[in-house]
Amino acid sequence: LDFMKITAEVLASFKPAKVFNQNQNVINSMDFSADGSLLITASDDESMQIYNTENGVFERTLYSKKYGVDLIRFTHAPNTVICASKNNWDETIRYLSIHDNRYLRYFKGHRDRVVSLNMCPVNDTFISGSLDGTVRLWDLRTTNCQGILRMRHEASSFIGHSVAASFDPSGMIMAVAMGKNTMKLYDTRMYDKGPFSTFNLQHESDLYWYNMQFCNDGKLVLLTTQEGIIVVDSYHGNLVRHIPMHSDYPLEASFTPDGQFILCGTSNGIVNVWGSTSGKLTAVWRSETSHPGPVGRVLFNPQKMMAASACSQVAFGSLTCNYQECPHLFLYTKRCKG
Known about the structure:
Layout: H1 8-12, E1 14-20, E2 27-32, E3 38-43, E4 47-52, E5 57-63, E6 70-74, E7 80-84, E8 93-97, E9 102-107, E10 114-119, E11 125-130, E12 134-139, E13 142-150, E14 163-167, E15 173-178, E16 182-187, E17 197-200, E18 209-214, E19 220-225, E20 228-233, E21 239-244, E22 254-255, E23 261-265, E24 271-275, E25 281-285, E26 297-300, E27 306-310, E28 313-316, E29 328-334
Parallel strand pairs: 28-29
Antiparallel strand pairs: 1-28, 1-29, 2-3, 3-4, 4-5, 6-7, 7-8, 8-9, 10-11, 11-12, 12-13, 14-15, 15-16, 16-17, 18-19, 19-20, 20-21, 22-23, 23-24, 24-25, 26-27, 27-29
């Protein structure tokens, strides 16, 4: 990772290096390619924006006018992505070549909005969760669904992003949070046998899931909820840390690549950085060009000392964003001395 260790001091030195204003509406998702060379964003204005992180420039715009676009994720190749629809009538997941803006495959099966979508880190399978109460396993090489988990709870009765599903770094375990304060772990080779672990997260209120992420060593699971950030021990299900946050707008947190820190936007246009296990506020990313509204998405580049944040703007270096009035992306990088 740019041959530099991620420390509290390094993160405290992050400043916006680039600010992009390509969108007319909220940026609903974004992802870095595995090699860190590209960033792609999806917006409620039915566009996808591609940025080159090598030189910090905007490259081009792709459109999905018919279906809209949400939950965009790079596959293991930097020229293809998967994404969900963002409309009221189609629940198909699409496999898209961003080289020529051509759909390669369609994955049909969900009967309600897809609210969780993640690639397996080691192969071409991916997992999707929907408000129809199911979690599905897929393979990029075939349109046939590879497996279905039908959850007991009526997911459509939950508020917002009520399903979260993801793979651990080995790709052998998938975690599913669906239902009130419950997370289940499945062996991907025998998921039909049921979960091998079920964790009931103790909390005074019912939690609704916005997103889920394993840290890179697989020891911790990060869950963003309407009550804030939950960090769970993936082996025993113990609550490691609860970082309270309250916002009417869904804010999705993420780990740094080493898993030592958590990044999350705020409703007032800044980005906070906490210690993953200590819960200590380590850094606050703000500047004169901070987002004027909620920063819904924040991601750290997997290969470079760089982060991005988005609302309707995008920022490189560190990232902030607004969700209605301000389509911006920020890129943050470490501030050099001298």
